[in-house]
Amino acid sequence: MRQVICMKWGTLYGADYVNRLYNMVKRNLSGDFRFVCLTDDPEGIYDAVECFDCPSVSIPEPHCNRGWRKVSLWGETVTGLEPGTALFIDLDVIITGPLDSFFEIEGDFIVCKNWSASGPDGRIGNTSVYRFTIGKHAYLLEKLLNQTDEVLSEFSNSQTYISRTIEHDAMQFWPDGWCHSFKVHCVPPGIRRWLEPPRLPEGNRVVIFPGVPNPHDAAEGRWPAPWYKKFYKHIK
Questions:
Q1: What is the pTM of this model?
Q2: Beta bridge pairs of residue 173
Q3: For residues 178 and 204, is the Cβ–Cβ distance under 8 A?
């Protein structure tokens, strides 16, 4: 059984984001699948979504409630998931094309490229959309919990930590053209962003939204930013 998983905690994203993600997956994934949401508040989420308690990581505030919390998925087991593989998808993405192939590529850890922070060797992933083998790399969670101060001082975010710490041969990227960044690939460059709306790249399957704007901001042509950045952080 193909498994899709997301996480929702806190108040940044409501149940509507989970439901919208479920609908997008259902439209773009043929056949049967399980859709699991790990959350601290299941109210308002569709019955078709299997909700389980959102796991935490025992590290200091505020890190424990930021992206580092997603490292909890790298334990020996994952709440609500069966052994095997799972496709993790962040809530703030837009799915526009077929997902079947995301389950067909062989590999332990397949992830988006990080187009804005690729590192000197180009091997930094963006964990907005990734497929992983459950329990295969449990040392990632163990190291975070056992060497917390060292990890947090060396790495500014969880996806850089995972990319630099996982066994080198274990990480590979989705084929070019499947995933795109809204800010990098969809928004027109320079002055054109004042004249033209963002466009969907040909062949795209998933658009990711790292940082801001979030999808609901982009839909309204709003890019939250200080006034002095409004000239170049603008979208129609």
A1: 0.94
A2: 111
A3: yes
